[in-house]
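Q: Okay, next protein. This is GMC family oxidoreductase N-terminal domain-containing protein from Rhodoferax mekongensis. I've checked the sequence twice, so it should be correct. Can you predict the 3D structure?
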Amino acid sequence: MNNDTTFDYIIIGAGTAGCLLANRLSANASKRVLLIEAGRKDDYHWIHIPVGYLYCIGNPRTDWLFQTAAEAGLNGRSLRYPRGKTLGGCSSINGMIYMRGQARDYDRWAQLTGDASWTWENSLPYFKLHEDHYKGANALHGAKGTASPLIQHNSTDYGKVLRHHQAGGEWRVEKQRLRWDVLDAFAQAATEAGVPATDDFNRGSNEGVGYFEVNQRDGWRWNTAKAFLRPMCYARPNFELWTSAQVAKLVVESNGGNSPLDAPLRCTGVQVWDGTEMITATARREVLLCAGAVGSPQILQLSGIGPGALLQEHGVPVVQDTPGVGANLQDHLQIRAVFKVKNTTTLNTQANSLWGKAKIGLEYALKRSGPMSMAPSQLGAFTRSSPDQAYPNIQYHVQPLSLEAFGEPLHRFNAFTTSVCNLNPTSRGAVSIQSKDFRSAPKIAPNYLSTDEDRKVAADSLRITRRIVAQPALRKYQPEEYKPGVQFQSDAELAQLAGDIATTIFHPVGTTKMGRVEGPDHDPMAVVDSRLKVRGVAGLRVVDAGVMPLITSGNTNSPTLMIAEKAAQWIAEDAELRQ
């Protein structure tokens, strides 16, 4: 930490979005960039071994250790709610699945914001911009060193070369380095049930069944700290990184009418707790809030930007009454079905013996393949929960293992798990502070299964699971439904059951949503405009999954990178306009 605490840009959160922004903005050698991370460096070995997510989630070394409030839709249960607390953020502890979602997601964002730059057609180049796909570049994928119409990474000024041309390709996408007979059979069964086979879920329509592609390099997890901070940022004298430093609040002052947007307020910096003292860092240009769909609304509320009644309840002076801060929480809730099988080996029995564990360890040591290289879910499928659905609205994560709950031992019998989630939930929750103390965890209330539509999709999706498992391709394994159990059949029984067994797959979004902030059809609950600027506060943007007005139809990590890539361009362009 240098004595000079004045920077051009201050980025809060060295997670998925923050690492990419730090890379892009510090490429301009004339701009000082500060990246602040509440967690420690990503030097914990289990971050980098793919199966190490088992040791990172629920570990204070790498996880914020959040819990949801007791959920009525889950029959009073509270869920573990992992959020990354280390360099790389959630990309250091997540499932590593590379998934963009569906074209309709982005076209809908464009409609809601009134900004065509968010359409699938206009977002695809920003996915490709940082992608390094193992198959190389083509119309849908990017690769390291291939031509792009947007950026030349060897330039020192990001903003002036956005229209020109060389791709970076920092974000590695590879095939998984394992397969299982029972997963191959499930994929065949899905095709027999009418789900087409696919070798690419990222074309704009992810309908189909196949193995997921993952963010790994040669069998190691590839997080955003590796991709975007090392070695590039560390070698730049204009880049500074503070770890084990938690932002307590934003510094917000009267703008004095000097902003070109005439915002009444301006964010001029942040107050940071380094473990021993509170330090104020000042931003000459912008503060970029990248603390995630839980952390960003919490920091805004602690800073006096949020629902006025909530802030007053906890003794936080109201700087700006913005009711949407913390609202609109959406998440993917998965319903886990377990099937016992015969005539095959699954990870349950392979990993439940010393010899099996030794073989697994040896294979990874020698080849970087096998179970230690695997993502939490290996096989995926996207389909419709019922024929009246216009688009694939459910997603499967299929695994050659089973257990009672995450973190508990594997079962002693061979089995596979099919977890299915509603891609487009209509339930909405909220994140809200419970204290003005920045060290206190916020209340997280996803409000799962609170609508009739979500309960109906949950029941229908379990029926689709049973239909797939009943196909001839799986017959030789004699699958037997262990969980939830064939005795549950009616809509009411299956919806009740979903409340008993469903768990999150850790995709919170929407708590600082973007939308129309002006005009007769403006959205009073929008927190940021379509360029991610916080309404009413100059010099402040939110750049993370919280800005999604609607959750994407799939895993949310890669869409967050795309959002950050767009934001980096807009920030640089605005800086040029002010020069």
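A: Here is a summary of the prediction. The longest strand covers residues 278-289. The two ends are 28 Å apart (CA to CA).
Q: Noted. On to the next one.
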